[in-house]
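User: Show me sequence and structure for the first protein, then do the same for the second.

Assistant: Starting with the first protein.
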Amino acid sequence: MSCSHDPVVDGERFAIVAPNRARSAGFTLIELMIVVAIIGVLATLVTKMIQQAQAKAAEAGAATAVSTISSALEEYNRDEGVYPAWNLKVDDSELEDFNAFPLLYESIAGERPPNGKGVKNSPNVDLDMELIVIVDDEFDEEYKRPGREDLFDPEVEKFYFDPWSEVYRYRENRSKRRKEDWMIKRSGFDLWSIGPDGENSACFGIPEEGEDYDDIGNW
């Protein structure tokens, strides 16, 4: 008696061929390559989206800092009748390096500014202590966090880092006898971050037609 379960058609027996389980159980090399390629594309898109979000957040942070410090400068001006560094001369030949921010700092955020927030000798603005820096004398054009003595010493020049670890720039305009071409805001002061490209383009004034810069300021 036959134990075979193969079907019989018209007296002829046909063998049933079992599927190749090993072959159908996994992916082929081509399928794996396609999956890897899709994952790579998605990862690239996600990375770009994160980078764009971080860039926008940095620009927004710089704009907020400029706005906050500008408001404190206006308060200072209402109390004192001048903006900090009103008596400093800006040399046209040194515009790129000129920065009166240390005087701004001592005037509105130092240990004993003249007036602030309605009371004598209190700051007009509270700056993030983590972003306050001083010049590192051991390395040219480098900055470092101030120690406690440096932080409260008005003779030590303090600067303030933007989101790209570059210092904010400041110059006073109102006291100048004539309006210079380098003035962006034609009255009061210019306060700005040099932006993500690291180029201090705004120091030369409003860009010429067809030119542009990414500096972020109070204009």
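Switching to the second protein now.
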Amino acid sequence: MKNITLLLAALAALGSAQAQPPLARAQGGDEMKAVYATPADVAEGKRAAETACKGCHGLNGVSTVNEVPHLAGQRAAYLFQELRSYKQGGRGADAMTNAVKLLSDETLMKAAAYYASLDPPQPAPPAKAAARLDPLAAGKAAAAACAGCHGEDGVSRIPGTPSLVGLDPKYFVASVSAYKGGQRKNDVMKALVAGIGDGDAKNIALHYALQKPARAATSAQGDAAAGKTAAAACAGCHGEQGVSASADTPSLAGQDSQYIAAALRAYKDGSRSNDAMKGLAAALDDAAMKNLSAYYAGLTPQPPKVARPMTPAQLAERCDRCHGTNGNSTDPRSPALAAQRHDYLEKALAAYRSGARKSSAMAAMTDGLEPADIEAIAGHYARQKAKSVVYVAVPGK
């Protein structure tokens, strides 16, 4: 055949569907050799798997070892390139490196072809799926206890009580922790937050961060014009218009003026601990504090840069772009995720997120994922039906 091109067709496994012998040799790079392995290559690959792989991955490619992946039905080129990476020390797993370091690339290719030829594993039973609580719904429910003082929408209507909108979630969580630990002195708040766990605090923070910000519905005392002049010393941390660019520093735009003044007094007398703020507040008298507070209260708050969390279905849709519908990859270089071990997928995603496993694409995809997101994605794919793939060479036009 002349001008042969590759047509990659994803076919559902029917009965004992195994990867068919190739009709043409690879015209791509070395990583494609496993896709075009002959039956003799596959047989040799089985012998290599018996020696080096079956102890952890099973001769049938279905792992029974915690956090060790299934290999049966996996995409051939992907297996080959990963085995070579382990051999070269690029994956940082001593057990795998030791298992393959003495094997030739040709042997690794054949082992990859063998495992790719096997029937894929069965999906995990639906009963094992963990329920994932919607963090926004959970945050809204937990925030109901805060509404009496801070307003249902997080916009204060009580003088001396802070608005909770317009704050970065990290700052909000840190504030809750400070009240719980006594670094911020307020007996009422300490009692109220005592039963709030870290997860609840994050959910409440997310709820308020996604509310439409508005200025506190309270009156301000002091001279805002004079406060603007004094605020020049605050802009470096709290922003030119009272909108902070740092998650560690609160935005002050639209905040209740009496609350700001009370916070400044607390920094000045030491009842609220922050060395930088203590030095700045020490130079302010009560009139200056009121002026600063009036200035910031009159500014327009802005929403923090927080992304609305995606549902498990939305998260999986992003992954399917590379890994195929329901995790059945149609690219021989991209791993299939369908019916993979749940615990292995969680481990791999966490490693990409932390940077322990290197991939610029996966680092970008996992950035911002919470542990609950990772668990949901892993559970979704573990429950999908895996499909075999046949690679067919067809004449080009």
